[in-house]
Design goal:
Blueprint (H helix, E strand, L loop, with lengths): L5 H10 L17 E2 L4 H12 L1 H12 L1 H12 L9 H14 L3 E4 L5 E5 L7 E7 L13 E3 L2 E3 L7 H16 L7 E7 L9 H6 L9 E7 L4 E6 L1 E10 L3 E2 L9 H20 L5 E10 L5 E2 L2 E10 L2 H25 L7 E10 L2 E2 L5 H12 L5 E5 L4 H5 L4 E5 L3 E3 L7 E3 L4 H15 L5
Parallel strand pairs: 4-7, 4-8, 8-18, 9-17
Antiparallel strand pairs: 1-17, 2-3, 3-7, 5-6, 6-20, 9-16, 10-14, 10-15, 11-13, 12-14, 19-20
Helix pairs in contact: 2-10, 3-6, 3-12, 4-6, 5-6, 6-12, 8-9, 10-12
Length: 441
Amino acid sequence: MKNCPITCIIFSLFFCLTLISNPTFAQDLDAGRSGKVEPQYLKGVEQLTKNKQIQKAFQSILAQQKRNREELILLTEIPAPPFKEEKRAARFSTILKEAGADSVWIDKVGNVLALRRGKNSKRRVALDGHLDTVFPLETDVKVKIKGDTLFAPGVGDDTQGLVIVASVLRALEDAKIETESDVLFIGSVGEEGLGDLRGVKHLFSNQSPRIDSWISIDGGGIGTLGIMGLGSYRYRVTFKGPGGHSWGAFGLANPQHALGSAIHYFSKAADKFTRTGARTSYNVGRIGGGTSVNSIAFESWMEVDMRSEIPENLNLIDSLLKSSVQQALLEHNAMKRMGPALTVDIVKIGDRPSGELTQEIPLIQRAMAAATYFGESPRTGRGSTNSNIPISKGIPAVTIGRGGKGGNAHALNEWWYDEEGYKAVQMALLTLVSEAGMVNP
């Protein structure tokens, strides 16, 4: 980090390991595989970059750097956990109106949408950044500036993505670029955690405007493009019993003990299962319950995340979780010496579909060609982002990076600084115009 004092480096290391080279913000995308760009798309992007209007748009992006930094700080300091994005959405909608969109509205689930009409409205291309962060409402999100580095929860993931969306819209307006297709500029809700992609799920329901191509900004460097969706299931498992005094009611079935057994059985079975075959993961992320050290809990719960590259493995590890929970329930009910039996609730709180697109799809070729123009050797990877939904439906979609340098995503000491961050904005514009089509290029 440029001009970063030793104290800030220690602060970063204390919370988590920073990435060593060209760090990204989070595990939005895996390292992926090398991308092969067809010559026709490289040529198409090169021709676009020679266009005077595109050059003017690129200059506009360079001129916006101070404004973009100010908007990044402004939006970062508006808390926006999943289901509580309203204030950030209201401010972002104002930014898009001021940027020159033809119309701006907030839909019934809270997504901000700005339409820029094209010459031919038969197609619609979307450029998306998500409004929400992983942090609770009470989190201190005041941006701290050390040297040229910004420190704040959510400053990169994905507030910088929102800034890019607005900056691209302004550049198109400044350069008076007309596209063939309509373009939707989006600030989506519910990408993180228990938000469960609710914003983009709504956008691809029958109740929303049709979207033919989808571009999300939600990665780190601009060289890795997400074209494969990492599927996940998430559950909240709750054991319930009568509860009581640890001495006076000893012999009641204990929800805490049952939960511990369930975790043990699941961990053993899942460990064996995930050691071979398609990559699959599992994690007990949160546990809770009980009232005091000398009380038998009346309730004990855990939240579980499971992911896999393929739906079959996801369904199999799902069955392992459920069978482990039932095994623990039966075992601890058999152990009780008095009182009613334990019960268990297994509630799915997250369902993100998997899917894959091929590198040959024109949108993906255009994005890889744009990355190549900026000196990258493009790679295509797998991740859990808003693109999961269109990918699972076979709709052309790609997740591109927000650029700059940053790290410690999902941590209180997240950081970002603007090292050639303009390239990510220019790449987003170039990919968007390539896909939407430029009138009289």
